[in-house]
Design goal:
2 domains; alpha+beta; five-stranded mixed sheet; single chain; 11 strands
């Protein structure tokens, strides 16, 4: 069986059909996306608000979610043999749901040698950990301190509007683990627990 080449007119017809199909899909994309969002309860999640419009406030049966406050406490511990003393600028803050919080941690190397470490964070209770949004943190990468050096590092976080309504207090805990400056692998899970 021999394959027959299509004529120029046939090829033009196929290309015209393909272009119209692509145009139709692009034209229908916005209504299809709105239908998808409505079907899965995304509340126009992909739609930016118009000029001058405020996004609607989220609410629940317990009232306005964004008006809630949660007490956030900060704790920390250094691993064995790590001569680093550290602490937050404030031992606790009252965070409004959805409003970003800026604070800092001060780290001091108490030893006469440089130290290289990784901070690993944990959040309790576990039910609230998923809705704690850590935006900027010294725990995202390894840190180093020269002998007797003091450094102030920022922490920037927010609590999601989906934050559990039955949780009024959470604890953000940091554990510092010594690291080898040549080893760029992630901290092993067994060291975290």
């Amino acid at each position: 069986m021999k394959f027959q080449k299509p004529s120029n007119a046939g090829l033009a017809l196929i290309l015209l059909a393909l272009v119209s199909l692509m145009f139709s899909f692009a034209y229908a994309n916005v209504p299809l996306f709105k239908l998808f969002c409505a079907r899965f309860g995304l509340n126009d999640a992909g739609k930016a608000s118009g000029r001058g419009e405020m996004a609607p406030l989220m609410s629940s049966a317990a009232g306005n979610v964004l008006a809630r406050s949660v007490n956030v406490k900060f704790m920390g511990v250094s691993g064995t043999g790590l001569p680093v003393r550290f602490g937050p600028s404030e031992p606790q803050v009252t965070a409004k749901i959805g409003k970003p919080i800026h604070l800092s941690y001060t780290f001091t190397n108490m030893g006469d040698d440089s130290v290289f470490f990784r901070a690993v964070h944990s959040i309790t209770p576990m039910s609230a950990a998923r809705e704690f949004q850590l935006i900027q943190c010294f725990c995202f990468e390894d840190q180093s301190l020269a002998p007797r050096e003091t450094r102030v590092l920022p922490v920037y976080f927010a609590l999601s509007p989906r934050f559990p309504t039955n949780v009024n207090e959470i604890v953000l805990n940091y554990s510092l683990f010594p690291r080898d400056p040549k080893d760029r692998s992630p901290v092993a899970a067994k060291e975290v627990n």
